Amino acid sequence: MIGRLCAVVALCLCVAEIAVAQPPDVPVVKPDEAGFDAAALAEVDTVIAKGIAAGEMPGCVLAIGRRGQLVWLKAYGQRQVEPVPEEMTTDTIFDLASLTKPIATATSVMLLIERGKLRLSDRVAQHWPEFGVHKESITIEHLLTHVGGLIADNKISDYLSGPETAWKNLAELKPQAPPYDRFVYSDVGFLVLGQVVERVSGRTAAEFAKSEIFAPLGMQTTSYVPPKEWRARIAPTEKRSGEWIRGEVHDPRAYQLGGIAGHAGLFSSAQDLARYAAMMSQRGQWAGVTILREDTWSEMTRPREVPRGRRALGWDNYSPYSSNRGGWMSASAFGHGGFTGTALWIDPDTGLFVIFLSNRLHPDGKGTVNPIAGQVGTIAGKAFVRP
């Protein structure tokens, strides 16, 4: 009896230790405490108000920080306008769309590389033999930088007969060009990378990302296929088959694959993304948690010359997709956007990060927010008072 009691006490202590080890929220401090001009930073309010008034989005959440601190966390406008209006809140959860590519898929790939399970120079066919038909020379690095010669998207009908047939159709696609011949931003390439993660890790892409990235960082509102109890906090997009899309992925290909894919499907909140951004702004570690070794982080974020610009591994650096970048970031800055109205940019030279989350597609599938996110990034960069 005493032995059993001791075991119970030990278990409780272990659980308590795990709870204590949970990384804290990224603290919110006054802008001037982190080296920002508060008055200059407040100009973001005007930019966002104009965007909402112009109908570019119903609302948004903006988080601006530096290294391990937030200097701005604010909700604007409405989370939902139809069928019943709802105010936007800072804990709103968004469909991140293509932010899935760097945050989940590329980070997972880099972890597998760090652990010796993959190499950037590996041909994809080494890990997915069926993919090698017509595409034997395409490597992991080619796909991470969108120079593999694959099309942007294959037709949606390729997905309508179920996931097994969808993956077969993807494997049989023919390339449009030799690797490095051209830069084509490709959802197909990241769908393939998501499949590689699953084949190499032995876990689904969702399971691997959760256990190796999100859980260690304490990202408790970040998930593929979010649970139903989150639905009230999720920002809806538009309608599908007459019903509002809320808590289901908007991307039609990810939807047909059950909500888990390498190019889209991830949901998260600004506060959770601040944890990830704090880690990436500090070379792979934050609050005592190391996600990527510094050499892995450096390789991931190093800009590479590609046709029409520069890309890092899974990240944009300076390319035709950089309108949401911000004009006062350094040449080392990396980031990405998402079709639903999301953007994340990180400048490792200054430690600055900008998280812009909107549901621009609600309610009518329209709205343009990349220029707004870019203006916000420019204001944030200018407001940081460099030594």
Structural commentary:
The chain has helices at 2-21, 38-41, 44-53, 100-114, 124-127, 140-144, 163-171, 187-201, 205-214, 252-256, 270-281, 294-301, 370-383, and strands at 59-66, 69-80, 86-87, 93-95, 223-224, 239-240, 243-244, 266-269, 285-286, 289-290, 304-306, 309-311, 316-318, 334-338, 342-347, 352-358. With 387 residues, the protein is an alpha+beta fold. The strands form 5 sheets. It has a 6-stranded antiparallel sheet with strand order 3-2-1-16-15-14, sandwiched between helices. α4 packs across α9 (205-214). The protein is globular, with a radius of gyration of 21 Å.
Care to give the gist of this entry?
By secondary structure, this protein is α+β, with helices and mostly antiparallel strands.
State the shape: globular
Q: Would you tell me which CATH topology applies?
A: Beta-lactamase
- Euclidean distance between termini CA atoms: 64 Å
Q: How many strand elements?
A: 16
Name the beta content range. Answer: 15-25%
Instruction: Give, in spatial order, the strands making up the sheet with the most strands.
Output: 3-2-1-16-15-14
Please state the CA-atom Rg, rounded to the nearest Å. Answer: 21 Å
What is the CATH architecture descriptor? 3-Layer(aba) Sandwich
The level-1 CATH class: Alpha Beta
Within CATH, the superfamily carries the name DD-peptidase/beta-lactamase superfamily
Structural class by SSE content:
alpha+beta
> How can the largest sheet be summarized?
6 strands, antiparallel
Q: How many structural domains in the coordinates?
A: 1
Mean pLDDT: 94
Helix content: 25-40%
Which parts are unreliable, with pLDDT below 50 for 5 consecutive residues or more?
A: 1-20
**Number of helices, where a helix is a run of at least 4 consecutive DSSP H or I residues:** 13
Helix-strand sequence: HHHEEEEHHHHHHEEEHEHEEHEEEEEEH
